[in-house]
């Protein structure tokens, strides 16, 4: 059997240039739907068991975030359950993966994928909790269901919003939500129980279903970068934001968390709202308190590395967390998880992965609760 | 939240006519890709928790097998793991499902689905066995991988072929294969161990990937009914048969099993090759012996109900099992599982389902082994 | 840390002679409670990680069945879940185990143990089935509960009895029962469902609780070999048989299966009742039919190797299966499982073990059902 | 079948007075081995399915902690996996349990038990971690192995000691240790990874194996209350303390945690070392910091309710945590878990249980890490 590269499955994305022999597999990233972004890849290699394979992604240097390839190692899996890192090099132009698969069929990806089937299973499982209501917000561009979980009593005084995966290639964002939900719905978890005494949570585990299934890095089916659509979302090209923005105006918001992945920085960190006009000292104190609580809750979260404050200065209200922070004057953060690893605690085998993302999601309940505790005192 | 019907997911298929209120949900079956068959449905209902829903499939009477609706009950699930039967009536024209869902989101289907993600996971899991080789046979019309498992030593004297799901809506066929594979690869299973001492197995768990994902009943993406393509398969419209037929001519065949579902009969049964020209008494004895062994192995399998021998008299060699039986003069059977239930041992809660299909697949190893034992003696 | 041998846990049994160094660990078998039998051992070794250990059982030649050591390999485990075989030699006097443990703590045993805690869990799990009633038959000598499962409708015409582990060191007998019960209570298992339409089963998973916990090979706490007590059991020294014998006279019996392990023969086989006075041709035919059904159901069961018919000629009615066969004129068999392996299908890693025993228990449902089918016809 | 009460199994403990009928089951607590303590009970009831049972523990008023019965509800289980609370009343003399079991066999206990078999399985599972060494410290009075887990690099600068279940009836203490160990050995847990970069842990999951198996509340087999033996433990009557005390003097200690259950208070809390002579302000600050970190980590832990500081003034150095705090001048705490429930977050179904204890053990890693971080800075 000769070598075969394929990607016709959920989130699959690659272009095959040539597969003459195992040592000369040449590939290209392909662009997001109706857009010029490109970086996500996910494909299957067959026919190379026990062969020393060299897979070259020729156009890696033209990716959206070339710095993402510095120190990066691709993930691989035989069964799509267990993912591990493989040798990867970047010479400024070409990304070269070297791996000798021990099975007939092996998958390579930019990061551990999170499929639409798993998404639907997550909703199905969560729905059994008496605390959970599943709400449909509307249709995506391709016609998929855009769902939200409402957790707890909607009459609760405080409203917490968590949205994830506006950028669909950042699958770690949905792994984090899965970990957070599993902890939140565990009746023996005392932090979860306290949170649900104080607040209702609105959770959108996947803001970009179409981009996720299509294997995009940053856009939806219409080519829109959803995290630049919050000022003027449209039903035609960014209905995902349109519906969520409307809903948040309907419910109000006391804490907003938008979960992302960062291609470059090998750390977990947040970007806050301190650049917003009219951001008060009180808001700064609250934001800092949240961040400090998170540091205490998980050594995987840190504050040393992150974005410069001015990163998004222009048109900043196009971004979800800035928009919400501005309108609701609440703590509003973008949480960034790494594609690479947490350089403070690197793991040679798996790097940063779905499991560690899920644990960070569980740990995030602690700063959420402490935020609610402080806010409760304040509002009394 | 108002009522919503959606089907944009793996194997989803329905047309919405109107959803004015829970008691008046009107739907239509939709046709297979490029073909006139229609019977499979799979959709999600949101927004009707605790509402007494009446879902009417208006064009059920025009389905391919209207007799399939006699005594039929639809399956439903909240989490797509646990499927159960719901009240269903057929008046000769309209199929009416009555159900009060207890969750915000519920799925209804013709039969417990088997997704492409699960298919890939099955391959991934099986591949870890040192007995298994995964082979790619080529691309489907839509460009998916058509995979085969080769189990055991290819130098073995006897060759057993098992193919499933030529008709993609017959998902029970792949459930059966999953059960068979799990048993076959269990090192503590003595029947499996004996089989692998005597034979190599060629197993195609899903002959029709495109039709499966598209939610077709009987055809592939090009509209071809694969089980009528065995005389003259084409690379353009029935590559799935083209590749498998070639491979079987390459390997030879001593036992052929083609797994199907039958819309009408509430029984498990086989259709044999006795109508073939030149079918010998020896072949008849072998076929009967296989069938009797299967009866002994599983009370879910029976011989009283089945097809009349002349069902496929014309152009019979277009069918997989007839074609193979004719060319290789081996025992060659079509195994039919019910969509409804096994009327000999009905289960009010789940009817016939994936789990019972899987158990039948495990039980099928016993007649396979006994066939190999007899054949071994004969060929010595 | 120096070397330590300990056995103060469920079924633990050994005597320490000396433990000067890893290469010179000298041990003795210890006798059953109040009896001279000895062969079972089960102990823990600590302090020898990565050391090449030589464990010598000095008095092995004086064991009850010295032939049991021919071709025998001891089992070992680090976690008491996964058991594997280790190098073992027998020179006619001393049994020598050579093993280099890779953990600080390792267990060695004659066969994979089945603890009293697991026994109670098995009862607890089975009890949830609506088909099951747990009945207490009385107290053992030490005061433990002697329990029976009644499975199915007690008004059923046919009564099937299965008892196991009269000889407590034959733990494979209870593994077999666990496998049989799990299959029997699986609502998707068609053989189980058919059986429960025709018969009620009386199952005693452990006839000898005290001997099991004490780590005996053959006797109860009072030193009685229960399978020699069926003529005149006593409340004082063999209450376990006393209670079960009374119960069987109360219920009647149409099929009796007594599960044992055999120290010497590396095969699964049955000993029948053909030596009984008045044993009819009809009984012989029924017994043979059962045996042939069993052969078809599992290649791990065979008829070539077994006991000579006259093995128990004298006082034969002291044995459970002979006693019952004589009194109830029904098919009554002793099923023997190996301590060593099934030489027809040896497994280098685990030999014969709990998992394979459980699978044989599942397979045994098939001859049981076919016996019931034949018997049903006969009694009509 | 008539009513039967039995307790001949791991940790079983009760005396039967009379069992005339389900509504009149009279029982007595029995004393610890060689001691006058009594409070623990654990027994099985058979023969009362669907009967409204009234079980009266006649001598409850003479128990060691009669206040333990105020607001207390007994736990029950059918399978010894799922435990739930049942109606229980205390009139100052008699403890009355009212329950209608829905199965033939049901167990009642003072608290969810933790068996010796589970203890050995916990050790076996943990041992697979490359971070873990299992060390045998010596024999208990009855001859069981007293084991310690050494986790991490013994050359680490900081030494953390965790011991549990000096009082064997306080089974929640070992549930806590199980939760802590599972988290500690999870390679994806960032707190665990940080801890193991800084410290080695010495963990004794069960200080009192004999008392645990015998079903004692407070003493070992010799009748010794181990938490009063730390001044002058003896090889004859308190070898468990003798060995652990010696080992701790060998390793040193920077943080000591002794896990207990409290019969009366429905809260989780710690008792500190502030009553010790020479206890410094620095020590007070460290102890307070640990406690505050724990409060942040788990809402199940609190500081409002606890013991008065002078509770153990006399002979205080007989207690483990006081002895260690005094000798090593380190933070040294007794952690108390409730038998009843956490009154801050009561759970009607299970009360306080093994699962919640395990979660508290996982949460405890956070104050441990923060203690290590502070201590590290201090010692630099
Ligand atoms: Ca992003
Ligand atoms: Ca068909
Ligand atoms: Ca025996
Ligand atoms: Ca205590």
Structural descriptors:
380 residues; binds calcium ion; 9 helices; homotetramer; 27% helix; 2 domains; seven-stranded mixed beta sheet; Immunoglobulin-like; Aminopeptidase
How does this model look, in words?
4 copies of one chain form a homotetramer. With 380 residues, chain A is α+β, with helices and mostly antiparallel strands. Chain A folds into 2 domains: 4-109, Sandwich (Immunoglobulin-like); 116-377, Aminopeptidase, CATH 3.40.630. The first copy, chain A, has 9 helices and 17 strands. Chain A has helices at residues 116-127, 172-184, 190-198, 209-214, 239-251, 281-297, 320-328, 354-363, 365-379, and strands at 4-6, 15-19, 25-28, 42-46, 53-57, 75-77, 84-85, 87-90, 95-99, 105-109, 132-139, 145-151, 158-164, 199-204, 255-262, 269-271, 331-338. In chain A, the strands form 3 sheets. A 7-stranded mixed sheet of chain A has the order 11-12-14-13-15-17-16, sandwiched between helices. In chain A, strands 1-4-10-6-7 form a 5-stranded antiparallel sheet, with no helix packed on it. In chain A, strands 2-3-5-9-8 form a 5-stranded mixed sheet, with no helix packed on it. In chain A, a hairpin with a 6-residue loop joins β6 (75-77) and β7. The first copy, chain A, is globular. The complex binds calcium ion (4 copies). Chains A, B, C, D: Keywords: Carboxypeptidase, Hydrolase, Protease. Chains A, B, C, D: Residues 112-372 form the Peptidase M14 domain. Chains A, B, C, D: This is Putative carboxypeptidase. Chains A, B, C, D: Belongs to the peptidase M14 family. Chains A, B, C, D: One of its GO terms (molecular function) is zinc ion binding.
